[in-house]
């Protein structure tokens, strides 16, 4: 009887641990990104993405990114936006620049759910360099950089490293990048 109760305790402990792992969150910008929340509800909590969130609001894309999806967002950090020439972000968030801002932001969104495994599979299927269409109508290219890193390239040849992969959302996935990518 004692062995049976020990086995039950171990079974329940393993089941609880598995359930906790399934609901575990990735930390981004000092905050937990919960898989039960949508892209916007998670992003607003990240201290590393305040510029991106302000830009999404200025472009009027909040409702879109709260939509059903699935979406894959390649989310530039504040440091990525800081690499842009001085005054660029201030100009882009002005109402008269809304169309340009929208095009840049939707260039960072790929329809579908592309975590590390899915991106790696696409790269293998497309002989080492994958291309995926963006929500803006452009294309992003992807290539492996070593065994555990994927580089994202825009149509102008600029590249970004993915610093945090697989931030699962209720309506997609976020992959954090270190550079703002620009459409043609």
TrEMBL record:
Residue ranges of domain FAS1 in the record: 36-181
Keywords: Signal
Any Pfam family the entry gives: Fasciclin
Keyword presence, Signal: yes
Signal peptide from the UniProt entry: 1-22
Gene3D superfamilies assigned: FAS1 domain (2.30.180.10)
Listed name of the protein: Uncaracterized surface protein containing fasciclin (FAS1) repeats
Organism: Noviherbaspirillum suwonense
């Amino acid at each position: 009887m004692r062995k049976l109760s020990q086995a039950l305790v171990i079974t329940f402990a393993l089941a609880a641990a598995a359930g906790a792992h399934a609901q575990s969150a990735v930390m981004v910008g000092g905050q937990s990104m919960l898989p039960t929340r949508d892209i916007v509800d998670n992003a607003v909590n990240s201290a590393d993405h305040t510029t991106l969130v302000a830009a999404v609001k200025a472009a009027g894309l909040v409702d879109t990114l709260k939509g059903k999806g699935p979406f894959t967002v390649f989310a530039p950090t504040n440091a990525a936006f800081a690499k842009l020439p001085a005054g660029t972000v201030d100009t882009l968030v002005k109402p008269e620049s809304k169309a340009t801002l929208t095009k840049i932001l939707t260039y960072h969104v790929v329809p579908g759910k592309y975590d590390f495994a899915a991106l790696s599979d696409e790269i293998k299927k497309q002989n080492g360099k994958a291309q995926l269409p963006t929500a803006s109508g452009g294309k992003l290219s992807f290539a492996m950089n070593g065994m555990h890193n994927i580089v994202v390239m825009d149509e102008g040849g600029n590249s970004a490293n993915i610093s945090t992969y697989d931030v699962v959302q209720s309506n997609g996935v976020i992959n954090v990048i270190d550079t703002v990518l620009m459409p043609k």
